[in-house]
């Protein structure tokens, strides 16, 4: 096995991969040899650009616009991926909606929107991908979370990712017999362009409180995901892997 192309022959779907961490993950999996489906719900131009950049670099990728809360979109995402690459081996659940409002100002519709993406959408995608993984001898599913799901923060709503985490841990138990691993990768303070509910950039810099004295960058997560879905992590399942420079250390 070529250590530089350890994912050769594998097929990955990365949701929310038109920018930031999702894009870095998609590009890294392509460098490792995987064929990658780039997904976004709104920014078609960026989605196409990421796929084209991968192709221009010698990799394989297609862009597929899809709202994972809609079953028809999920079905098309799987169809286009299978049509182009033959199946699915890797699923990266990165899509999420950020609704940053204090609890007493949060509407039920806001609550359901967040849950619909992180939980319902992840369930739809996972149930659609797992049969292909079983047919292909195994697979890997990774959910990308934020550290605020563990530490909490004013105006944040980690419940949707907490629910997704519970779902993934249950899946790790149920799907282990099919050689499918399910894990969670948790980001701390990362240097990304994130838009909060106010419409302004929301990228708090916590460098002074991080023992490693720097914020994470998307490539840090991409390196972790490449490990988790590859041949060197086949006994890692049901785990939450924290990338935060020792800012938060769960027991």
List keywords for this structure.
251 residues; alpha/beta; Rossmann fold; seven-stranded parallel beta sheet; 16% strand
Question: Which oligomeric form is depicted?
Answer: single chain
With strands numbered from the N-terminus, the spatial order across the biggest sheet is: 3-2-1-4-5-6-7
Global mean pLDDT: 90
How big a fraction of the residues is strand? 15-25%
CATH class: Alpha Beta
Overall structural domain count: 1
Helix-strand pattern, N to C?
Answer: EHEHEHEHEHHEHE
* Total beta strand runs: 7
The CATH homologous superfamily is named NAD(P)-binding Rossmann-like Domain
Largest sheet: 7 strands, parallel
User: What is the CATH topology?
Assistant: Rossmann fold
Measured on Cα atoms, how large is the radius of gyration?
Answer: 17 Å
Which class of secondary structure composition applies to the elements? alpha/beta
Overall body shape: globular
Give an overview of the whole structure.
The chain has 251 residues and is an alpha/beta fold. The protein has a single domain, classed as NAD(P)-binding Rossmann-like Domain (Rossmann fold). Helix content is 40%, strand content 16%. It is built from 7 helices and 7 strands, in the order βαβαβαβαβααβαβ. It has helices spanning 20-31, 44-56, 71-85, 108-135, 148-151, 159-175, 218-228, and strands spanning 11-14, 35-40, 60-65, 90-93, 139-146, 180-187, 240-243. A 7-stranded parallel β-sheet has the order 3-2-1-4-5-6-7, with helices on both faces. The chain is globular, with a radius of gyration of 17 Å. Mean pLDDT is 90; it is low at 195-202.
